[in-house]
Write a structure and sequence with these properties.
Glutaredoxin, alpha+beta, 3 helices, 29% helix, 4 strands
Amino acid sequence: MTLRPRGDGDHSGIIFFNLISFITQPLNQFPMSYYQRHVFFCINQREAGAICCNNHGAQAMRDYAKARVKALKLDSKSRRIRINNAGCLDRCNEGPVIVVYPEDVWYTYVDKEDIDEIIEEHLKNGRVVERLRI
């Protein structure tokens, strides 16, 4: 069957056909994410002392995590782990928070030891740290 656009410029039939073809493809035909794991640290700072992640030193902890990942060479092309800033992740009452993709695992943390455990267990070895999971 050949699909051709109508003369009036309406290509909706082709677009619909392409969308259905896209949706029904097996997931293994799509390219993998560039990063093996992508970590987002909420570093949001709210006004007037309102509860937020940065009240708990989130920026410093993000900087620490980035340096540790680099020191462990987990950011290499073979491991591809990336540490990034994020604005408000809207979980302020559970903060400070980070989220690890593609697993969509959310963590809270208190100190560098917690960050070290997340790096060692989850980022390096693929094991979720249940005691820090939210």
